[in-house]
Amino acid sequence: MANKVGPFWVGPFCISLLHPYPIAIKHPPHKQRTLRTDLQPLHHFNILLPLPSSSHHKGNGIMVGSLALHQHLASPYHHNYLKDQNSLIQPTCLVPLHQVKSMEDFRKAHAQFLKLGLDCIPPYAGELLSACALSAWGSLDYALAIFLNLEEPRTFDYNVMIRAKVNHDQSKSALQLYKEMIERSINPDNFTFPFVLKACALLSDIRGGIQLHGHAIKLGFDEDVFIHNSLINLYGKCRKIELSYKIFELMGSNRTIASWSALLSAYNRMNFCVDCLHLFAKISCEKLKPDESSMVAALSSCSNLGLLGQGRSIHCSLLRNYPTLNIIIQTSLIDMYMKCGQPDKGMLIFDKLHEKNLWTYSAVISGLAMHNNCKKALQVFSDMLNQGLKPDEAIYVNVLSACSHAMMVEEGLKCFNQMRFDHQIKPNAQHYGCLVDLMICAGRLDEAYELIQNMPIEPTDAAWRSILSACKINGDIKLAESAYSKLEQMDAVNAGDCVILSNMYAELQRWEDAAEVRKEIVNRGLVQAPGFSQVEVKGKIHTFVSHDKSFPQSDEVQEMLYQMDWQLRFEGYATDNLRSSEGQSQKIAIAFALMNTSSVSTIRIFTNLRMCSECHKYTELISKVFERDIIVRDRRRFHHFRLGLCSCDNCW
DNA sequence: CTAGGGTTAG
Asked: What whole-number distance in Å separates Cα of residue A90 and Cα of residue A295?
């Protein structure tokens, strides 16, 4: 049954609307107008008014009301409206809002609503708000002005504004609106929570998030799938993975693919890449199909783990299932190919893209730098600037680290200044860290030290660690000690730092000092990640640790290693030099791959440590003697070995 | 009655 609303005045008319749904209209006192009861309606007409564009009457886009004419109107203007008692009157001046495509059109439409006094009447107010606040062409400020003008905003109006603020990166202010709505006793509904939870997630505001979770339960929204998914996301962003999982578990069969995606990305954030891929494989057990979002999460895990095979198979299934791929997933694919040792494949995807954003460029620039193709990285960066994209501080981290990889000191300093002065970006600790690395790579250690001491912000532990590692090579024990003590002050000492310093003492035959630092590892309860090397053979990943003999082919591999040593001796290389643990595991991985792959295929090794120079030398020679391309990803970058040479030009 | 959740480098 339709509700009758009104009567209220529209211009010279008094209108009563047969409203399709219940609405309480209260006019603010200054807008109240008395109905002239002394005048009998002359005629009744029907009138068409624009409908909220997304309502269930979408088809016509127009709402039918009845109009009673209380005054005799002679002007031709009005006659246009009132032609025939039975015909529908089309108020041509009113453009349906869903046809509005620009702020200019919107202003006109809004003016008409204002003139008719409809601007503060639900559902028009909400419709105006959501059009203006949420469309691509809209304006948050304009929407805010409309919103503030509402005497009695409703839940819907608040929801729209909260959502718009979150979209405009104003999460704090969005939460403020939520607070305001509670204070004004306007009840949040099942739509409110996903928006405000997202705001908390973006702010990593775990306390606020828990409060909201409580509110949602209290208001009885403990069955809502959208709210649950938002909660998984919230706890994931706050690194409370147990809580994310708990919600996920609780949802049982109500889980949707979005629940999985949110959980997968939570695992990724914690760097639980193996578990992430396990979960990804389980999606299909629930009769759900992995979609783009969940595949983005899985691809990111593949990138981190260097799993080319699995990354490729995700790519295939994307190509099978989607006619076009969105920019986010394309970026993930580029990143995956870059990090799994196929930069050419990554570039192929990149070159074919017609839409590129900062993240795409960022993935390519850091990928190219990783493969020691720094010139190209800078080329891509300058293309990006020519495209008119505005660089942000994150992309400058990539650009600067590309410069430091390639020892391009002047270029790096130029970029640093360009960032500060042309693009008005204040350098952060990471940028200074890159500069420090740049100086170190160029062998200007004293300048690096001067820089790190005089930089205007607190240096990161990584920057001090760079200094410490550099000392390892040039043997400056004084500098090493001061870098180490800085790390101590920051409470950021790790096992690797202790090893470096201790080895340096040992080199100087200061045995007591060496032992003292070694003891620190135990005292501080530091654990060193076990070094391993991985290689993919026939789609299966094989992982080896140093002196590994615990795998089926171990005996054959030992034989192979013996032969490899023998061959290298002809090249004048004594393999006894190679004693480091990563060297050992890498040797085994290479031997295993040489034995089990075709003689023309490229060997791809993934190791979690940094390659030492002996290991590097060894691999160079193997690539020459066995005429095999070997690509090694160590924890920082790639080395392409071919015929005795490495892409890194012996600088890493 | 209108609207909504999950996705990317360093």
From this structure: 50
